[in-house]
């Protein structure tokens, strides 16, 4: 296993990062060892591009990275390798499905901005801490419909989000990706905006065959890359449905699961 992997694509929140969104020293060391061994390392996340910059710099990443679950793939110099926007009819359907749902906040990401109508929603502080920048308050999402990167329905009522995921999928299947990136976040992105396509796009850019790639993640948006990668690893705290779709399961993110996976499966220590 260890000799065959030439590119590892990692999720961020719940995977690479600790619960407080920081990087542990062991993780930093493991990624550095990986790159010293000649293995490419990159990130695929539901986050916007500018909410990845700090981690890209800390990890010394010098290859393209995937934001918005693969909706935007950015080269190291900041130019776009790929961009996939949500079709307008799908965006309208998603917004109509989420509106007036009790305890559900709706966020729209467009042009690098995090847009919302209610800045006092209970989920806002968590997201602002994770992203590292504040939202833009708007009266309507309508002016942004042509260039929506991602719509998020967020709630502490995870059962309701599971229900909304199923309800929306019946309306937009084959037209968009609908998945929970975390238990409290339901993401809606363009059909091509998935981590599997992102893995294939970056691997092709790096000239690495898919059988020599690996992917690691914890959320419902990560099996898309598990299914394309040569080898896939789920985090220990991931839901059973996610763990079942991976080739291996590592420790939770609270116990340096990514570092352990790199050491065991890729560097072969």
Automatic annotation (TrEMBL):
<dbReference type="InterPro" id="IPR036412">
    <property type="entry name" value="HAD-like_sf"/>
</dbReference>
<dbReference type="GO" id="GO:0016791">
    <property type="term" value="F:phosphatase activity"/>
</dbReference>
<keyword id="KW-0378">Hydrolase</keyword>
<dbReference type="InterPro" id="IPR023214">
    <property type="entry name" value="HAD_sf"/>
</dbReference>
<dbReference type="GO" id="GO:0005829">
    <property type="term" value="C:cytosol"/>
</dbReference>
<dbReference type="InterPro" id="IPR000150">
    <property type="entry name" value="Cof"/>
</dbReference>
<dbReference type="Pfam" id="PF08282">
    <property type="entry name" value="Hydrolase_3"/>
</dbReference>
<protein>
    <submittedName>
        <fullName>HAD-superfamily hydrolase, subfamily IIB</fullName>
    </submittedName>
</protein>
<dbReference type="GO" id="GO:0000287">
    <property type="term" value="F:magnesium ion binding"/>
</dbReference>
<dbReference type="InterPro" id="IPR006379">
    <property type="entry name" value="HAD-SF_hydro_IIB"/>
</dbReference>
């Amino acid at each position: 296993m260890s000799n065959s992997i030439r590119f590892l694509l990692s999720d961020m929140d719940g995977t690479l990062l600790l619960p407080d969104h920081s990087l542990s020293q062991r993780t930093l060391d493991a990624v550095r060892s990986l790159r010293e061994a000649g293995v490419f390392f990159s990130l695929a996340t539901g986050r916007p591009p500018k909410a990845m910059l700090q981690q890209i710099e800390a990890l010394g990443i010098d290859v393209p990275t995937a934001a918005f679950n693969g909706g935007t793939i950015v080269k190291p110099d900041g130019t776009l390798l790929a961009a996939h926007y949500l079709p307008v009819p799908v965006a309208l359907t998603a917004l109509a499905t989420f509106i007036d749902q009790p305890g559900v906040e709706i966020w729209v990401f467009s042009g690098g901005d995090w847009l919302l109508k209610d800045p006092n929603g209970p989920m806002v502080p968590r997201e602002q801490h994770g992203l590292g920048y504040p939202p833009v308050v708007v009266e309507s999402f309508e002016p942004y419909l042509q260039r929506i990167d991602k719509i998020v329905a967020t709630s502490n009522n995870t059962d309701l989000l599971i229900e909304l995921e199923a309800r929306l999928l019946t309306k937009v299947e084959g037209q968009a990706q609908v998945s929970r990136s975390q238990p409290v976040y339901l993401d809606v992105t363009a059909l091509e905006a998935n981590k599997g396509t992102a893995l294939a796009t970056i691997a092709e850019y790096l000239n690495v065959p898919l059988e020599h790639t690996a992917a690691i993640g914890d959320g419902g948006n990560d099996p898309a890359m598990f299914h394309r990668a040569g080898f896939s690893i789920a985090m220990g705290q991931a839901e059973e449905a996610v763990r079942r779709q991976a080739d291996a399961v590592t420790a939770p993110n609270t116990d340096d699961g990514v570092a352990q996976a790199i050491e065991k499966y890729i560097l072969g220590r």
